Give the backbone structure.
Amino acid sequence: MAYLMQPTVPPGQMGLPLEPTLSRIGRENWARSYAWRAIRDAGIDLIFSTDWPVSPVSPILSIHSAMTRKPWTDDQPDNRQTLMEALDAYTVRGAYAEFAESWKGQLKPGFVADLVVWDHDLQAIEPDEMVNVAPRYTICGGRLTYAA
């Protein structure tokens, strides 16, 4: 079982207003809405993607959103994801979603070499600083496809 989610679309993320969405969801359903932590804790594969053109296509903005999402009220669950959880949701779980986990989604021998080299060490910066990160290089199938 897998659950596909776009981290940039919950109300309050990426400049989206809380209303009218929160009222339409209903307070009694908030704890189950965009419940990334409960999904992951239940052992369900959490897969991140984008909802472009409705939301930004940038994976780094989605990772930022997944790491910085705040509960709507103090009594709501914290659904933020760690950097490693967000990267897993985009890579390993993304490959699983397209039935390609036997040849992509990980850096290991025999797998296609799809990767991004960022201009910051993602593990060394605070989640709020993630919006300042940009790609230096993109490698797809072992070939350089973008260089800043």
The chain has five helices and five strands. The chain has a mean pLDDT of 93.
